[in-house]
Amino acid sequence: MARKLKDPTVLHGHHVITGSDLRATFVEQDELDNPVRMRRRILHGVVLLLLVGLLATAIVVALAIMNGQIKIPTAERSTAAASLCPDASFDYTPHDKIQLNVYNSTGRPGLARTVADEFLSRKFVVGAVGNTQSGYRGVALVVSGAAGQSAAFSVQRNLPGSDYVQDGRNDPSVDVILTGDFKALAKPELVDQTPGKLSCPRETRRAVEDAKLPVVPTVVPVSPSP
User: Disulfide: which of 66, 127, 201, 226 matches 112 by Cβ 3.0-4.6 Å?
Assistant: First the structure.
């Protein structure tokens, strides 16, 4: 008959305490008796729950934005708040009351002189005529200070498709900067002389890369034919 194997954990009817039993007992007792360790375990549990909650909330919000259920107001650009275009209405100013400077920013020689002569034939008071540099892509820029807005409005009526820009000058003079898309002035008999507002299309379209307003013309006397 085979001998029954003895249980190594029992000696003379008593349970033998092993090293692992002792370690488990002391670890559990140490954690119960150590408040710092208990608080740390509680804190870790709270932080873990918060992170899980934040992650779940972020996923829900992201899905709601993607589905259009949540709209972010700050993501919609307010053109009204950023508007630099004068909102006032102006009467048509008589041509002989308008001091006008004409600049050519295109590669077409003699353009500023030709257009200046046309303005002269319409009784505008033309001052400087020259060349300038401009990164603007369009028909023309009409530039004035606050005192010259009414005059600039009349100039724009003769320059359909032009873009108004205000600078810091104090006098009522107006600068016309002819740019690449310029073709011709409006025919004198077709110029609308009823009251209206200045036109600033560059506020609704990106006409100049990295444009900084106001645009102040810089005359570059490099060409003998403005």
Answer: 226
